[in-house]
Amino acid sequence: MSHSQLDQLIIMANQIADNNHLDTDAESIEFIATHIKKFWARSMKEELIAYAQEGGDKLNVLATQAIMVLSEQYTSRST
Description:
This protein is mainly alpha-helical. It has one domain (5-78). Helices cover 77% and strands 0% of the residues. It has helices at residues 3-18, 25-39, 42-53, 61-78. Helix 2 packs across helix 4 (61-78) and helix 3 crosses helix 4. The N and C termini lie far apart (26 Å). The model has no long low-confidence stretch (mean pLDDT 92).
């Protein structure tokens, strides 16, 4: 995936996080992770997970946490 495509994924993940604040951060994080899991292509998820695992400095806090939850789901699913 090109750098500009990754930048677009980061923007979209941050927008989802910015627009979906629920009662608690935990609920927001779960909602964001579920949204990305359901609606994003596998390649998009994998690219964003790799970026977050490498530091993900352009992701906001809720987006980062949601991506890490998603990463854990992918890891536990493959074991």
